[in-house]
């Protein structure tokens, strides 16, 4: 595993750069922001991640370790590959990604070309608890007392395709008999519980089936 590269910049293009490391040109894929900080002929240091596949080995370069960490965590989301993860970092800075993931703000991720509401919803669902904003000491996945968690869960569900009204109704019904979980305010746990309840509701008979039991469009 190549953790970082240091050497003069031999070439810069729109999506990659070549770093001269001991006479060997190392091709590194990078975001426009990272590339913008490089200068031809000037020594640079890039933190790197290597993606190895059957037919290729690709180096991705980052301005710092925090950017690389966010990149690697984004890759744990189903359907998110290196190119899309780099696209996210090209549009959003690491701290914005951390905040959006920790608060269930799927709309932020839809700013990235190629990411629609369904993919954004999957990102916030699968990243819940994995990325914590550096600007807060709050525990991962936890929120303040009261129902400050609800907008975050609703945002995640609307990102998955439910309407805001159906999302609120589903949350209330799914957690009606779990006051301890609501008191803890764990966004990820409440979201998972609501989605499980919706799945069970979908398997029930049509009698009494309301708006909260509907599947989102396209799912």
UniProtKB/TrEMBL annotation:
Residues 152-219 are annotated as: Domain III. Homotetramer. Forms an RuvA(8)-RuvB(12)-Holliday junction (HJ) complex. HJ DNA is sandwiched between 2 RuvA tetramers; dsDNA enters through RuvA and exits via RuvB. An RuvB hexamer assembles on each DNA strand where it exits the tetramer. Each RuvB hexamer is contacted by two RuvA subunits (via domain III) on 2 adjacent RuvB subunits; this complex drives branch migration. In the full resolvosome a probable DNA-RuvA(4)-RuvB(12)-RuvC(2) complex forms which resolves the HJ. InterPro entries: DNA_helicase_Holl-junc_RuvA_I, Hlx-hairpin-Hlx_DNA-bd_motif, NA-bd_OB-fold, RuvA, RuvA_2-like, RuvA_C, RuvA_C_sf. It comes from Arthrobacter russicus. Has three domains with a flexible linker between the domains II and III and assumes an 'L' shape. Domain III is highly mobile and contacts RuvB. GO terms for molecular function: DNA helicase activity; hydrolase activity. Keywords: ATP-binding, Cytoplasm, DNA damage, DNA recombination, DNA repair, DNA-binding, Helicase, Hydrolase, Nucleotide-binding. This is Holliday junction branch migration complex subunit RuvA.
């Amino acid at each position: 595993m190549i953790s970082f590269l240091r050497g003069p910049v031999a070439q810069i293009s729109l999506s990659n750069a070549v770093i001269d490391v001991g006479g060997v040109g190392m091709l590194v894929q990078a975001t426009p922001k990272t590339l913008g900080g490089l200068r031809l002929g000037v020594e640079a240091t890039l933190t790197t991640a290597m993606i190895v596949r059957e037919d290729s080995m690709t180096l991705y370069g980052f301005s710092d370790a925090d950017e690389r960490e966010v990149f690697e965590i984004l890759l744990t989301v189903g359907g998110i590959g290196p190119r899309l993860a780099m696209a996210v970092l090209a549009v959003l800075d690491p701290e914005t990604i951390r905040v959006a993931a920790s608060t269930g703000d799927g709309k932020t991720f839809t700013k990235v070309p190629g990411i629609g509401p369904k993919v954004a919803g999957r990102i916030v669902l699968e990243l819940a608890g994995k990325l914590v904003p550096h600007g807060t000491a709050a525990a991962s996945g936890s929120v303040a007392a009261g129902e400050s968690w609800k907008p975050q869960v609703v945002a995640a569900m609307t990102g998955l395709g439910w309407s805001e009204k159906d999302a609120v109704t589903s949350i209330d019904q799914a957690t009606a008999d779990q006051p301890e979980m609501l008191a803890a305010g764990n966004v990820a746990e409440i979201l998972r519980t609501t989605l499980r309840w919706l799945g069970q509701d979908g398997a029930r008979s049509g009698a009494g089936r309301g708006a909260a039991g509907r599947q989102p469009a396209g799912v």
